[in-house]
Amino acid sequence: MSDTSPGGSIKNYDLVIVGGGMVGISLALLLAQQQPDWKLLLLEAQAYEGSGKQNNHPSFDSRSTALSWSSRKIFQAAGLWSQLQPHTSAINNIHVSDRGHLGLTRISAKEAGVEALGYVIENRWIGAVLLEKLAETSIEMMAPERVEKMTPLKSGVRVDLAHSGETIQTSLLVIADGANSQTAQKLGILSHQQPYGQQGIIANIGLQDAHHGVAYERFTDQGPMAMLPLPDFDGSPRCALVWTQLPESAEKLMAASDKDFLEALQQSFGYRMGMVKKVGERVAYPLALTTASEQVRRNIVVLGNAAHSLHPVAGQGFNLSLRDVATLADVLGKAKSVGADFASLEILEDYQQQQLADQQNTLMFSDNLPKLFAQPSSAVALGRNSGLVMMDLLPSLRSGFAKFGMGMANKEAGHGS
Ligand SMILES: Cc1cc2nc3c(=O)[nH]c(=O)nc-3n(C[C@H](O)[C@H](O)[C@H](O)COP(=O)(O)OP(=O)(O)OC[C@H]3O[C@@H](n4cnc5c(N)ncnc54)[C@H](O)[C@@H]3O)c2cc1C
Predict the structure, then answer these.
(1) Residue 297: C-alpha distances to residues 40, 189, 268 (Å)
(2) Cβ of 362 below 6 Å from ligand 1
(3) Atom of ligand 1 lying closest to residue 228 CA
(4) Which of 32, 183, 193, 314 is the most exposed place for a label (fewest CB within 10 A)?
(5) How far is the CA of 192 from the centre of ligand 1 (A)?
(6) What is the mean pLDDT of residues 262-278?
(7) Given pLDDT bands bounded at 50, 70 and 90, which one contains residue 407?
(8) Number of structural domains in the chain
(9) Is residue 203 part of a domain?
(10) Index of the ligand 1 atom closest to the CA of residue 309
(11) Pocket of ligand 1, candidates 16, 26, 27, 44: which has the most ligand atoms within 8 Å of its Cβ, to mutate?
(12) Is the whole model's pTM more than 0.85, yes or no?
């Protein structure tokens, strides 16, 4: 590739990533480690301001993420886990319950034979660690920057940039600019959105008692809620709340005083985690299942939320995307090592094929879980509660559920073993 623009030569890259959120940066870091001779560029719409945990980028907001065992393994291989781990709280046990019904199941790390079922970390810390590592690499970064236009070439893609007005060329363009990707839409790749008609309220909650690494998933009439253990703050125990609500009740809870919010939370959740004492910043997200109409084309890959954005209750969205990232990096590396065109449709379809079962299973699990528990009919309630009771009685079924949460159910992904 050596096209020249009227004004001079055009910069060439092996790979350009559009979107510097958790997924885009993770791919950039994995590739910088595995393909040190590649020329990489990251384009991000929002400037990164502030440093460390104080960075105020929207991708690294007040949410927390439950990282699965498979994510730990991927970050470990990328040399990032030692920086992330001090900011995580290990999940030793998961309690799944259904408000107003009998069923309750407990999944333990000990029984599953692993050190932890997952690790909870604030997104701000993920951002701080990823951005610090990025600054140590030779990856080029343009922020704020957006794609104005993309033109397919015989080999690669020409990209006109909106802010700088520059034109660049790349062998492979990875689109990771979030759900309802504007960049993918410019290529005629559409987002299919199925709204759940619910909002997810997130907040950090101060607790009176220690949480002992227990994560709670609770299904209520309004929708599912999760309380995930976080590292202590100033010596006080905390957890991360994800609370699904119908829009009108979400609006009321968002407007409520801290005292009223905590009272409503305590009433809905019960006293399994003891008394809830404090609530931090609250943010409400509209919930939808969004999938892209295509994930690969010659010289193009759609990744992360731009490819699939899931209901957060099962805590699978980022974990799945990180497995996509690891598989993509692996497939590209293997293609390069045998001298193949790593951005050819054949190679990119191979990546998609390798991730297909993992994506389908994870999407189905994340989509079905809240729907199953949203059914008010007594037959379904009976079924789901006997399901939970059964799961509590049958260790193999329970360990299967645990393995799924840890990202180990899909052997095709190959990152869990
Ligand atoms: C409440 C909640 C809780 C969650 N909990 C979990 C959990 O516990 N475990 C889990 O695995 N997942 C969880 N998720 C899902 C997880 O947050 C997402 O999967 C993840 O953030 C997706 O990252 P991304 O980089 O693909 O997208 P984003 O985070 O949306 O990043 C996209 C980036 O692209 C940039 N951008 C946008 N448009 C452009 C453009 N035109 N040009 C250039 N850049 C652009 C944006 O500024 C942004 O930085 C949760 C989600 C929610 C909402």
Answers:
(1) 19, 10, 47
(2) no
(3) 8
(4) 193
(5) 17
(6) 93
(7) low
(8) 1
(9) no
(10) 19
(11) 44
(12) yes
Give the pLDDT band of residue 2 (cuts 50, 70, 90): very low
Smallest CA separation from ligand 1 atom 15, residue: 317
Render pLDDT for 4-57 as a digit per residue (tens, 0 to 9).
Answer: 445 557 999 999 999 999 999 999 999 999 999 999 999 999 998 876 666 677
20: Cβ below 6 Å to ligand 1?
yes
Cβ of 118 less than 6 Å from ligand 1: no
- Asked whether residue 237 is domain-assigned, the answer is no
Domain assignment present for residue 268? The answer is no
| Structural domain of 24 | 4-193+288-408
Q: Which residues contact 300 (CB under 8 A, 6 or more apart)?
A: 157, 172, 173, 174, 175, 187, 348
Q: Tell me how far apart the alpha carbons of residues 409 and 416 are, in angstroms, rounded to a whole number.
A: 8
311 Cβ contact partners less than 8 Å away, ≥ 6 residues apart: 196, 287, 289, 366, 367, 369, 370
- Please tell me the distance between residue 388's alpha carbon and the centre of ligand 1 in angstroms: 31
* Ligand 1 centroid, distance to 259 Cα (angstroms): 30
Residue 110 forms part of a structural domain: yes
- For residue range 105-164, list pLDDT tens digits in order: 778 888 878 899 899 999 999 999 999 999 999 999 999 999 999 999 999 999 999 999
Three-state secondary structure call for residue 67: strand
d(CA 282, CA 156): 43
